[in-house]
Amino acid sequence: MPLVAALMALAALAGNTVVTAAVTDAWEAARKGFARLLGHGDPDKKKLAEQRLAETHAQLAGAQGADLERVRAALEAQWVMRLADLLEEAPGVEADLRALVEEIQTQLPAGMTSAADHSLAAGGEVNITASGGGVAAGVIHGGVSTGNPPSPGPRRGEPDPGPR
Question: What is residue 146's predicted lDDT score, i.e. its pLDDT?
């Protein structure tokens, strides 16, 4: 995955994490962590980030039904762009952002998932299975295509067991 695509995927996952965490018990840790990263050592930038995070929390807490999904999508898009800008302006923050997202993801209630740009993070176990000629993968870079898979044969160095 090219670097720009990887950074955009990280920004998308991080933006989704902000919005997902905003209405959970993980919010305080998320709020503090994202404000610290976005402030990047500047008290004014940190204060602005804290205000934006508080607005996000308030907007999500006040939304219901179909309006909730609209608000959630709009806020997520805003956070993705803010975090993409942060990664562009301060490339050294990438590892810290990844670590923060992973930390917050572990604090989300079991069963809550976040998905963005070909990624999935879960607050519990994820089991990936395939059946009937399907494909199962934990990480996929690029496209997936299924053709007619070859029939099972002997392992390298073992004799052919004959017809089945």
Answer: 43
Q: Which two tokens stand for residue 24?
A: 């959970």
Q: Which of 48, 16, 22, 21 is nearest to 35 (CA)?
A: 48
Alpha carbon distance 100, 30 (integer Å): 8
Crossing angle for the helix pair 43-62 and 65-89, to the nearest 10 degrees: 160
122 DSSP β-pair partners: 113
Which residues in the chain come in under a pLDDT of 50? 114-126, 140-149
Residue 157 Cα to chain centre, angstroms: 42
Predicted confidence (pLDDT) per residue in 59-107, tens digit = 999 999 889 999 999 999 999 999 999 999 998 999 999 999 999 999 9
According to DSSP, the residues that pair with 121 across neighbouring strands are 114
Output the CA angle 59-61-64, nearest 5 degrees: 90
What's the Cα-to-Cα distance from 131 to each of 128, 134, 135, 136, rounded to whole Å? 10, 5, 8, 9
**Burial of residue 108 (number of CB atoms within 10 Å: 0-12, 13-18, 19+):** buried
